[in-house]
Amino acid sequence: MKARVHVTLKNGVLDPQGKAIGHSLNRLGFPEVGDVRQGKYIELEIAETDKTRAKARLDEMCRKLLANTVIENYSIAVADEIDWKKE
Questions:
Q1: pLDDT digit of tens for each residue in the chain (87 aa)?
Q2: Cβ(57)–Cβ(48) under 8 Å?
Q3: Which of 37, 54, 64, 82 has the fewest CB atoms lying closer than 10 Å?
Q4: How far is residue 20's CA from residue 3's CA, in Å, rounded to a whole number?
């Protein structure tokens, strides 16, 4: 089963990389860009056919390795929730 995990910094956590991206875009002629927050995108293939079990395992992966839950939030989407053809 394919899955996607998005990890982002929690509100209130400073994002120096996002700030640098925003400043660079402004300097490159994109003055309409305001606040920028950056994150991580992870695509996984897991050997699981049950959606509930897959989400539970992915949640465990996020808590143990993929996200620092003190300062980051994460969201999980599995194959039937994603339109893979569009993206």
A1: 999 999 999 999 999 999 999 999 999 999 999 999 999 999 999 999 999 999 999 999 999 999 999 999 999 999 866 665 554
A2: yes
A3: 64
A4: 30
pTM of the model: 0.81
Distance of CA 55 to the CA centre of its chain: 15
DSSP state of 10: P
Domains of the chain, first to last: 2-81 (3.30.1280.10)
> 3-class SS at 44?
strand
Q: Compute how many other C-beta atoms are within 10 angstroms of the C-beta atom of residue 44.
A: 16
How far is the C-alpha of 23 from the C-alpha of 1, rounded, in Å? Answer: 39
Residue 49 CA: distances (Å) to CA of 4, 9, 24, 54, 58:
15, 30, 43, 7, 13
